[in-house]
Every structure is written in C-alpha cells, then in structure tokens.
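Per reviewer request, we include the raw input and output of the structure prediction for the construct analysed in the revised manuscript.
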Amino acid sequence: MVKLRLKRCGRKQRVLYQIVAIDVRSRREGRDLQKVGFYDPIENKTYSHVPAILYFLEKGAQPTETVRDILRKA
C-alpha cells in the first residue's frame, strides 16, 4: 500500500519536509516512489505537484492526516 506522507530534511533548527509517495513498510527517511511536493513549516510555504498527487490518489494512495491538512489548506 502506498501513502502520501512527510519526509524530514534540512538541518537542525531549520527543518523542511518533502511530501512523498512511499510504501507503507518503509521508514520515514526510506526510499520514496516519487517526490510530489514540499512543506516549510517555518515560513508556512507549500509547493505541491498536483498532477502527481492526483495520480497517486486515483491509484489508491492514502494521505496521512498531516498531509491531508496541508493539501486542504493548499
């Protein structure tokens, strides 16, 4: 099963999150299927690649609650 979830990157005190499509069994920093956007909580910016997100949602991917809230705001 595939999920849309956040993958942490950046450095200490300056975190960024990538929104990725990833297999459920993978860990947070594991290998992702595709990067579909990013979220910057410090500047509250979001970039999302909408066609890729819609593709994975149509194929049955489940977004996590945090990703669902981010996409709802965007």
